[in-house]
Write a structure and sequence with these properties.
The protein is mainly alpha-helical. It has one domain (about 1-319). It has helices at about 15-20, 20-25, 25-35, 40-60, 60-75, 85-100, 105-130, 150-165, 180-195, 200-215, 230-250, 270-290, 300-319; strands spanning about 1-5, 10, 140-145, 145, 170-175, 215-220, 225-230. Strands 5-6-7 form a three-stranded antiparallel beta sheet. Strands 1-2 form a two-stranded antiparallel sheet. It has a two-stranded antiparallel ribbon with strand order 3-4. Strand 3 and strand 4 (about 145) form a beta hairpin. The two termini are about 30 Å apart. Residues about 1-10 have low confidence and may be disordered. Keywords: Membrane, Transmembrane, Transmembrane helix.
C-alpha cells in the first residue's frame, strides 16, 4: 500500500505509520535511531529495545487476553450474575471491536483471526467431548462443553502472527511451496482428531515438518538491516511462549487437564510438541493470507528513505 504524504513524497508507509496511535511518534523515533546508529553499543541497545517493543506490540491482543484471565482469577466475584467465562467472552468481543475501531487491527487481520476461531473452536468441541481437558466453570455462551471465549485464545496466536509479519517485514529464504505447507498443516490438524481412533502420527509429522522447513530461514527487519532465524527455531520458541501462557491459563482455572483437577500442577513439557505442531497449522493459515516472499533490498532502502524523510521534515518544521 502506497500513500502520497505531502512534502515527504511517495513512500510506502511503515507499520507504525499505519496505526494512528503510533504515527505521532515516528519523527522522534527517527531522531533517536540516528543518534543510536553513531556507536555500536548504542545501536545494539537501540535494536534490542526496538525488538522488544515490536514483539510487545505484536502480542497486544494476546497480552490483553492473558491479563483478563489473570485478573478474573483473582478479582472476579465468585457468585456474580454473569459467569466468569461469559464475562471473558464479552470482554474479548469488546477488545476485538476496540482494536478494529481504533485501527490497531485491520479488517484483513480480523478475517484471518476469525478463521482461527473456527479452527480452534472445532477442535475444542471434539477434544472436550473426549475428555482431553475440561472447562470447570459454568457458561451461558458455549457450544457443548466449550465456552465461546476459547476461540479468542486461538485468535491470539493468529493476531500475533499477522501483526509480527507486518511489524518485522517478514521475508523467507528457501520457503517450501504453499501446497506443501497446506498439506502438512491439514495432516497435523486431522491427526489432532484421528489419534483418538488410530495410531498417533505426530512423530511422522515432526519428521515431515523438519523435512519441509529445515532449509527455510526467516528474514526480519528490526531497523535498517535484516536479521535471520531458522523458521523451525522460531516455531519452537513461539511454542515455548504458548506453553508458558497455557500454564498461566490452567493456574487461573480457565481450563484444566485431567491430572490437574484434584490439585494444580504445571503442564508437562510434553505439551510443547503439540503446541509446535499447532504453530505449523497457524503459520499455514497466515502464510496463505500473507504470501511469503524472498528477501530483497527494497524494504531496507524504503526504511532508510522513510527515516531520512522524517528527519528532513522535522528540520524544516523546526526551521
Amino acid at each position: 500500500m502506497r500513500r502520497q504524504s505531502g512534502e515527504r513524497g511517495l513512500r510506502e508507509k511503515s507499520a507504525a505509520e499505519l496505526w494512528p496511535p503510533l504515527a505521532r511518534f515516528v519523527e522522534e523515533e527517527a531522531r533517536l535511531g540516528r543518534w543510536a546508529s553513531q556507536k555500536p553499543a548504542r545501536r545494539f541497545v537501540y535494536e534490542f529495545v526496538r525488538f522488544g517493543i515490536k514483539q510487545a506490540w505484536a502480542c497486544l491482543f494476546g497480552g490483553l487476553m492473558v491479563a483478563l484471565v489473570l485478573a478474573t482469577r483473582f478479582f472476579y466475584p465468585a457468585h456474580a450474575a454473569l459467569a466468569r467465562y461469559d464475562f471473558l467472552f464479552l470482554a474479548a468481543l469488546g477488545v476485538q471491536a476496540a482494536l478494529i475501531l481504533l485501527r490497531f487491527e485491520s479488517l484483513e487481520e480480523a478475517g484471518v483471526i476469525f478463521l482461527f476461531h473456527i479452527v480452534g473452536t472445532a477442535m475444542e468441541i471434539f477434544k472436550t467431548a473426549h475428555g482431553s481437558w475440561v472447562y470447570p466453570e459454568p457458561a451461558f455462551f458455549r457450544i457443548g462443553g466449550v465456552p465461546l471465549f476459547t476461540g479468542f485464545m486461538y485468535a491470539c496466536v493468529g493476531s500475533y502472527m499477522m501483526r509480527a509479519w507486518a511489524l518485522f517485514d517478514f521475508r523467507f529464504h528457501k520457503h517450501p511451496p504453499l501446497w506443501q505447507v497446506s498439506a502438512l498443516a491439514l495432516a497435523i490438524y486431522v491427526n489432532f482428531f484421528a489419534h483418538h481412533y488410530v495410531a498417533d502420527m505426530r512423530l511422522v509429522l515432526f519428521a515431515a515438518s523438519a523435512a519441509i522447513f529445515w532449509r527455510t530461514t526467516i528474514y526480519y527487519r528490526i531497523h535498517h538491516g535484516w536479521r535471520t532465524m531458522p523458521l523451525l527455531l522460531a516455531a519452537f520458541l513461539a511454542a515455548c511462549f504458548i506453553w508458558l501462557a497455557e500454564n498461566i491459563a490452567t493456574y487461573s482455572h480457565v481450563w484444566l487437564y485431567p491430572d490437574q483437577l484434584a490439585i494444580w500442577k504445571p503442564v508437562g513439557v510434553g505439551k510443547l510438541g503439540s503446541w509446535f505442531l499447532l504453530q505449523i497449522v497457524s503459520y499455514a493459515l497466515v502464510a496463505i493470507a500473507c504470501r511469503p516472499r524472498e528477501p530483497d533490498d527494497a524494504p531496507i532502502a524504503e526504511s532508510q528513505a522513510r527515516h531520512a524523510d522524517r528527519l528532513t521534515f522535522r528540520s524544516r518544521a523546526s526551521g
